[in-house]
Amino acid sequence: MSWEEIDKLLVKMFDTQLKKLKRNQKLSERDSQKNETPSLEFKGWLTEFIQDSSDYEKFKQSRLVCKRCGEKIENTKFVVIFHPDHPDDYTKQLYFHSGEQCNPRTRYLNITRKMWLIRYQLESELRNP
Asked: N- or C-end of the chain: fewer Cβ atoms within 10 A?
């Protein structure tokens, strides 16, 4: 090895300024990659997610209609009655305002429960004669 090659190796190994410059260059490259706009795939996924969530919110709001008064339920306080045969089927649920507006706990809720109980008993008798 010549003295010039040895000198270059020593500069590479022990020159802290050169190491700092290389490190700063790598950091700036990483930062520039982070600040780039999102990819088209991510943008497509995000628009689909936003559309799906807004469609779900519209569906949820459209089905929240009070059975007694027929008005939309806009607050978070409401009563739900599940069908006895299909407790997990959300299309067979009845919604009522809770509180002062319709007061379903004392009026219509008991009547609906009795009607469903009678229907449930009659259907079970018809199935098992």
From this structure: C
3-state secondary structure of 74: coil
Neighbours of 82 (CB within 10 A): 14
**DSSP letter at 92?**
G
Tracing tokens 């809770």 back to the chain, one arrives at: 98
Q: Which of 125, 128, 129 minimizes the C-alpha distance to 117?
A: 125
Query: 86-124 burial, b if ≥16 CB within 10 A, otherwise e?
Result: eeeeeeebbbbbbeebbebeeebbeebeeebeeeeeeee
Q: How does pLDDT run across 34-60, given as a tens digit for each residue? A: 656 677 887 888 888 888 877 777 766
* Token pair belonging to 7: 């000198």
Token pair in block for residue 5: 């090659």
How far is residue 94's CA from residue 14's CA, in Å, rounded to a whole number?
77
> How confident is the model over 71-120, as pLDDT tens digits?
887 777 777 878 778 878 777 778 877 766 676 555 666 777 888 888 88
- Calculate the CA dihedral of residues 108, 113, 118, 121 and round it to 10 degrees: 170
